[in-house]
Design brief:
By secondary structure, this protein is an all-alpha fold. 59% of the residues lie in helices and 0% in strands.
């Protein structure tokens, strides 16, 4: 991919929590956050002495929240794209947002399975 985002306000419009840098397969700068494979999150640090089941519960909650942030961002960008005449891009971003909701349903299922 290798797209470079040079917009001065991209940083303001890119929705992430602020914890540690990460890579999404593109090269723009991010406000730091974590939770991607191979990186330690504050949630993981707090979970140091917890069982695998307890760690998974925390991580599932974290991943769901993170996906919700992305889903909202996709919808905002879809709206922006639509307002600038990019209807196909908007439609695709809306589909990505819907896929995020489907992923969260699976994360909810895994979270429920931990409690059984």
């Amino acid at each position: 991919m290798g797209h470079r985002y040079e917009s001065a306000n991209f940083e303001q419009n890119h929705d992430h929590c602020a914890q540690a840098p990460h890579h999404h397969g593109h090269e723009e700068e991010h406000r730091p956050h974590s939770g991607h494979e191979g990186q330690t999150t504050s949630t993981e640090h707090e979970a140091g002495a917890l069982s695998t089941k307890e760690k998974l519960a925390r991580m599932l909650d974290h991943w769901k929240h993170h996906n919700e942030e992305h889903e909202a961002s996709y919808r905002r960008w879809a709206q922006q794209a639509r307002s600038e005449g990019l209807a196909q891009v908007a439609q695709t971003l809306e589909a990505v947002a819907e896929s995020s909701l489907a992923l969260n349903q699976l994360l909810d299922r895994a979270r429920t399975q931990l409690d059984t």
